[in-house]
Amino acid sequence: MATKADRVKARLPRGFVDRVPDDLRAAEKMMADIRKVYELYGFEPVETPLIEYTDALGKFLPDQDRPNEGVFSFQDDDEQWLSLRYDLTAPLARYVAENYESIPKPYRSYRAGWVFRNEKPGPGRFRQFMQFDADTVGAPSVSADAEMCMMMADVMEALGIQRGDYVIRVNNRKVLDGVLEAIGLGGDESAGKRLVVLRAIDKLDKFGAAGVSELLGKGRLDESGDYTKGAGLDETSISKVLAFISAGAATGGETIASLERVVTGNVKGAEGVAELSTIEALCSAAGYEGRVKIDPSVVRGLEYYTGPVFEAELLFDVTNEKGEKVVFGSVGGGGRYDGLVSRFRSEPVPATGFSIGVSRLMTALKNLGKLDTSDNIGPVVVLVMDRDTASLGRYQKMVSDLRQAGIRAEMYLGGSGMKPQMKYADRRGAPCVIIQGSQERDLGEVQIKDLVEGARLAADIEDNVTWRESRPAQITAKETDLVVEVRKILDAQAEDRVNAMKAL
What we know:
Strand content: 15-25%
Helix content: 40-55%
CATH architecture of the largest domain: 2-Layer Sandwich
Shape: elongated
Strand order of the largest sheet: 1-5-6-13-12-11-7-10
Number of domains: 3
Largest sheet: 8 strands, mixed
Distance between the termini: 52 Å
Number of strands: 18
C-alpha cells in the first residue's frame, strides 16, 4: 500500500471528460439512428487513425521546437511531426488521395471518431470530442451540397427533432470571398486576416452584430476580462461585411435577390449566389422548403471551405448557466472543400461534407426528452448467501442459465453480506435479484425480488388495498423455473416503461 507521500493524485486533465454507461449506450443508439440515414443515402463507412502527419492536417509548425497551437503534436523517432487529428475531414482527404485509383468516384463515405483541440477549455468546450461525418468526394455539382443539406434535415427528424425545432442554414463562401475581395482582402497575402474575419462573423449568434463589429475592428473585451484581438478593418469595410451577413430575408428568393445586390460587379460573388439559387431550387423541389434556408450569416470558421457552407441549428430554447433562456444553436455543419484533397494531388478534386457534434447533439436530445435510455438496464444479480464450493457452483449455474437465455446476469463477486449486496444491486440498476439460502436450496427454490416494483411500491403506495392489487415485489419460484419467472418480471417492467413513455 502506497504511503501518503507516494500516492498519485487522481485528477482528470482540464478539457476532458469521463463517460459513464448511460451516456455511452445513449450515444451508441443515437449514432445507430444517424448511421441508418447515411446508409439510406448510399454512404459507406471508413475509419482513419487518430494520428496523422502534421502537414497532412494542413497545420504547419511555426518553428522547429514547438508544434502549432490548436493541435496536440509530437515528434516521431525520425523527427517528423505527428498530430492528433483536429477533425475528420483532413484525414479523409489524405485517405482519398492515397487510395484515389482504387475507390469509386464520387466517393461517398461516413465515419465517427474522436478529434482533439489543443485549445483553452471552457464550459461546453472540450479538448476531446466525437464527430460523426459524411462526405462526398469527386462531385463538382452543387447537387452534392444540396443532398448534404437534405440528409442533415433527415438526420434531425430520425432523432425525433420535429420540423420547426431545427433548420439547416446555407450560405456560400464564394459570396463572402467576393465581399472580402471588394474590401481588399483577396489573395494569399491576406489569408491570415481573412481567417480572423471569418471567425468574427461566426460569432454572430453569440455576440450579436455589435460584438462582431468589435471583432472586425480593434477587438473585443469580454466579461471575464479576456481580450480578443480584432481584424483591424476600417469602418467602411466593417459596414460592407455587416451588410452581407444581414442580407437574410423571409424567403430564399428574397435573400438571393438581396445577396445579388451586395455582390454586384464581383464575378466570384455572383457565382456563389447562383449556386445558392440552385441549392434553393433543388431542396424546394424535393420537399425541404422551410427546413433548408439560405442564410448569409453562416460562414464556418475554417479556411479550407471553398463554396457552399451549412449548419444544422436547433431553434428551441434552453436555460444557460446564468438561468437565461437562449436558443440551443448549432449541432453540426460543414461545406464544400474543393482544395483539401488537391493538396496531395496535381489535379483538382471537388468535395463536400458535414460533421455532427455527437456530445452536443446528445445534450440537445436530452433537453428535448428524446435521448433514448430505455434499455440502460443493469444485470440481474444472483446474491451469494453461502460461500462453499457447492453453493457457489449452484449460483454460477443460475447465472449461466440466465445468460444462455439472453438475459444480462452476474453473480456477486465481493465479500460482503446480504445488505451490502442489495445496495450493490441497486447501484448497478439491477431489475431484480436472485436469493437462495440453505432453506430455499433444500426445497429446490429461489426467491426473486423485483427491485423496480419494490421501489415503486415503497414510494407510491400508501393504502393496503392498492398494495394487495399491485404486482408482487418478491416471489418464490422453483429453481428449474428461474429463467421463465425472471423473464416475466423483465417483460412486466418493459411494459411499464412503454406505458410511462406514452403518458408523457
